[in-house]
Amino acid sequence: MTLKFARFGSLGAEEPVVVVDDANGRTRHFSLLPLTQDIDSAFLSRDFVAETQLALDAGRLPAVAPSARIGAPVARPGTVVGIGLNYAAHAAESGLEPPASPVVFLKPANTVAGPYDEFPGLPGSEQLDWEVELGLVIGRHAHLLADEHEAQAAIAGYVLANDLSERSLQLGGAGGQWTKGKSLPGSTPLGPWLVPAVGADGMPFDVSSLPLATRVNGVECQRSTTADMVFRAAFLVHHVSQFMALEPGDVIITGTPEGVAMSGRFEYLKHGDVVEIEAPGLGAQRVVVG
Question: Any signal peptide, and if so, which residues (predicted)?
Answer without folding.
Answer: none
